[in-house]
Design brief:
Blueprint: H1 2-20, H2 30-56, H3 64-94, H4 104-114, H5 118-146, H6 150-174
């Protein structure tokens, strides 16, 4: 009787031990992996763009757009640093190696804008940010709709909120009158 009871306890323990072991995680889809990489590079690019404004805005006048760009740049850096922290965390959990810098195309575009001065810089920077955030919104929406990893889709929903808010801020800023370059 004791042997039967011991066998029953051992069998029950073996069943719970097997249940405690998590199944092998599914491999991450190419879309999920690409989203994490592109979202990270996008955040790095936006952080660089925001920091670049500190060097430029106000150098050649203090027009309304200059102040707007300065404020937008501060918000851009704060929000994308926060978002990128989450991106890096999710990527780490899923074993995705992230690049250390924005893409070459992102860097080239920022360098072209940085070559401008005054109100021309302000207009080009806002235009670049509108384009960047529209492209990011397309990427994020695709991930929300068809991503496969739940934690990456959740991240995409968070990113969608940030990207949409930024896009709206930049669209409003574009409407602010820009002083003419000859007026400085």
């Amino acid at each position: 009787m004791m042997i039967i009871l011991l066998a029953a306890v051992m069998a029950a323990m073996a069943g719970t031990a097997g249940a405690a072991v998590s199944p092998t995680p599914q491999p991450l889809s190419l879309q999920d992996r690409d989203f994490l990489i592109l979202a990270h590079q996008g955040s790095l690019s936006e952080i660089e763009a925001g920091l670049a404004v500190r060097e430029r805005v106000g150098e050649e006048g203090e027009g309304q757009v200059g102040r707007a760009v300065r404020e937008l740049a501060k918000q851009l850096v704060v929000d994308h640093m926060r978002l990128d922290k989450v991106i890096r965390q999710v990527a780490g959990e899923l074993g995705v190696k992230l690049p250390g810098e924005p893409s070459a195309a992102q860097r080239e575009r920022l360098e072209a804008v940085m070559a401008l001065r005054g109100a021309e810089f302000d207009r080009a920077w806002i235009s670049m940010e509108i384009d960047n955030h529209r492209q990011a919104l397309v990427l994020v929406k695709k991930q929300v709709e068809s991503g496969s990893a739940p934690q990456v889709r959740k991240l995409a929903l968070t990113a969608e909120h940030v990207v949409r808010n930024h896009l709206n801020m930049f669209l409003r800023a574009r409407e602010v009158p820009v002083p003419s370059p000859s007026g400085s």
